[in-house]
Amino acid sequence: EREERAELGDDREAGALAEVLASMKELNTSLVAAVRGETEVYGFLCLRDDRLRDAYTPEEIVILRALAAQAASAVESLRLYERLRDRDRLAALGEMAAGLAHEIRNPLGSIKASAQFLAESAEPAGKRDPSHEFLGIIVEEVDRLNRVVSSFLDYARPTAGSHEPLDPTATVERTLQLLRPELGPELVLAMELAPSLPAVRIDPERLRQVLLNLIQNAAQAMDGRGKLSIRTSVLERTVEIAVSDTGPGLPARVRENLFVPFVTTKDRGTGLGLAISQRIVSAAGGRIEARAS
Asked: 286: Cβ–Cβ under 8 A, 6 or more apart, which residues?
């Protein structure tokens, strides 16, 4: 067919067929069937028989295509099963977390109240008790444990809230308005917002939570000094919100585990902020990823 196309002067089609032949030669195959799902190609079935030039009949090719379709269906069924299994696991984890939080928060509240009472009574007028400092540490650490428990609950519980269509640009602008006083004078904020974006189905409070986490992480990575950029764009009906900074970046080994719960590079971080953000975005049908600039 390539030779016929070349003789007819159809150089474009002949060139495309030549590329196909070159690719098949590299794969050492004479017959290729795509394992194609609804939205992507999972792989290829490649066959070769050197005994004959035309080794496969049209009927056999039809059978191979049917086999490729069955393979694609099996891959999609497996992915669906994995999603259902993860959902059931997270549901059980959420129930356990609710009970665990209840059991932990009650004694934490008692410990904090007792430490505060002792701190007030252990400091006579004009005289400082040395134990007062340690009581303050107890209160501070109780507050930190309470934040860890709350973050764990946010990760374990299924995301709730309204999923009515919203304007993502308005949510980005509102989030920046809330955060701007906290960013500091030495941090330069650059915004590149698309003039009009399609509405997205996500709870506005959840989207704001994701943005707050990403922007605060970027600001902390630069120690409050540098350039923080927020860009919105749309590609093939997909809205992208990009947060970038001029910080030192993350090593490859850290990026690989960036969304794993309880993995953190901060001294006092819980390691759940990005994991929660990933759950929120995934529940809305999107994805979140980190890229090295």
From this structure: 200, 202
pLDDT digits (tens, 9 = 90+) for 209-234: 889 888 888 888 888 888 989 999 88
Give the helix/strand (H/E) hosting 33: strand 31-36
CA 79, CA 87: separation in Å to the nearest integer? 12
pLDDT tens digits for range 88-118: 776 676 677 777 777 787 788 888 888 888 8
Q: Residues 131-175: pLDDT tens digits?
A: 777 888 888 888 888 877 777 766 666 555 556 788 888 888 888
C-beta neighbour count of 219 within 10 angstroms: 21
Residue 45 parent element (H or E): strand 41-47
Report the C-alpha gap between 234 and 192 in whole angstroms: 12
Helix (H) or strand (E) holding 231: strand 226-235
Smallest CA-to-CA distance from 239 within 288, 279, 176 is with 288
Phi and psi torsions of 190, nearest 5°: -115, 125
What b-and-e string marks burial along 75-92, b requiring 16 or more CB atoms within 10 Å of the CB?
eeeeeeeeeeeeeeebee
Single pTM value for the model? 0.53
> For residue 248, which of 191, 187, 185, 292 has the smallest C-alpha distance?
292
Contact status, residue 225 vs residue 186, Cβ threshold 8 Å: yes
Mean pLDDT of the chain: 81
Q: Edge-to-edge, what's the strand order for the sheet holding 238-245? A: 187-192, 226-235, 238-245
Is 30 within 8 Å of 24 (Cβ atoms)?
A: yes
pLDDT range class, residue 293, cuts 50, 70, 90: low
- For residue 141, give both structure tokens: 């650490």
Nearest C-alpha neighbor of 269 from the set 213, 230, 225: 213
Separation of alpha carbons 247 and 269, rounded Å: 18
